[in-house]
Amino acid sequence: MMLDTAWVRAQFPAFQQPSLNGQAFFENAGGSYTCRQVIDRLHRFYTERKVPPYAAYAASRLGGDEMDEARSRLAAMLGVATPELSFGPSTTQNTYVLAQAVRRWLKPGQSIIVTNQDHEANSGPWRRLAEEGVSVREWRIDPQTGALNINDLAAILDDDVALVCFPHCSNVVGEINDVAAITRLAHAAGARVCVDGVSYAPHGFPDIGALNCDVYLFSAYKTFGPHQGIMVIRAGFGMELPNQGHHFNGGTLYKRFTPAGPDHAQIAASAGMADYLEALSVYHGGPAAGPEAARTAHDLMRAHEVALLQPLLDYVSARNSMRLIGPADARRRAPTVALALQSDAATTAAALAAQGIMAGGGDFYAQRPLAAMGVDLGRGVLRLSFVHYTSQAEVDALMMALDQVV
Fold this sequence. Notes:
- It is a single chain.
- The chain is an alpha/beta fold.
- It folds into two domains: 5-34 and 303-405, Aspartate Aminotransferase, domain 1 (Alpha-Beta Complex), CATH 3.90.1150.10; 42-274, Aspartate Aminotransferase, domain 2 (3-Layer(aba) Sandwich), CATH 3.40.640.10.
- The protein contains 15 helices and 13 strands.
- It has helices at residues 5-10, 36-48, 58-78, 91-105, 120-127, 150-156, 179-188, 208-211, 235-238, 264-269, 271-283, 290-317, 345-353, 367-372, 392-405, and strands at residues 24-25, 85-88, 111-115, 135-139, 161-167, 192-196, 215-219, 229-233, 322-324, 336-341, 357-358, 360-362, 381-385.
- The chain has a seven-stranded mixed beta sheet with strand order 2-8-7-6-5-3-4, with helices on both faces. Strands 9-10-13-12 form a four-stranded antiparallel beta sheet.
- Helix 7 links the parallel strand 5 and strand 6 (192-196).
- Helix 2 (36-48) packs antiparallel against helix 11 (271-283), helix 4 runs parallel beside helix 5 and helix 12 runs parallel beside helix 15 (392-405).
- The protein is globular and about 60 Å long.
């Protein structure tokens, strides 16, 4: 069944707002619109349950139940156990806390591997460990294509490597990396695996259990939810790392890596993401709950995005004035399209705004991959990113606007 975009857009209040009427949103890689189910839960929590959770009185008990519901339902959709999912203020913060735990876990002489394809939020905290004497190796992209070649990883992977950190897909290159294959290679060498899923998860929740990685991180505010970072850390690794939370929380996996107090309302509201994905599955004739509903939603979203993305990739690939970063095959990438232009990207984005196209220009904290590919960081790239609620009419309007502006 094809995705019913009219039904989908009806689930997002932004599309009913007069101030956004006639505006096509193409900066979803920076943060998505929020679905109604999340907004409703957030409003209910703040108006009815904004008290300390987990006490005996009704408002407190209901608030705690909603927080637990968010964790259990999202964990099920991601194919992991409930205690393996934790919330934090952002993915950047979650990665930083995790890196501090890994710093104390590493044995003398051990190394970690990072890539130069990453957004700086996943790469920076690991690279900074070099200041503490940790050996940091770099798995480098192909400077022409931006791709990560698994054979290049194999060449720098040995018994001294304790952790391999890489993105599910880059926020500028867009190519979807084979997480399962990379994880198998790393595990065979005795290394753990940490995956930055921020740029992939908005296009459908992955089955993390099937990917078999040790850590997977993404941002709820890019998956139609509140501003929270979500981290899955598998029990076998999480309980091996030193506790980063209060000493009395050391025995609880989902509390070990949240040294700050949790945002009760936003965690509770995150259950709305599960509400939305299940409703999307049911409306299109799929399963009503759990991982099966998540897989159905994922496949519907990806099929719609691929169908809209290929004409855009064909259009930009045919233009001499634009250099497409990453593959031109929509099946191999997320709908995050970065273009190196002959002019300043931020100025071009401003010109597109006058045409009703909301896009961005700059480096998007991806200076390392862009520099490796020879992109002028002073000009940056024009980034055009969409998700499943984007319509064919909006993509057509984008290409017409590009004709006028570039």
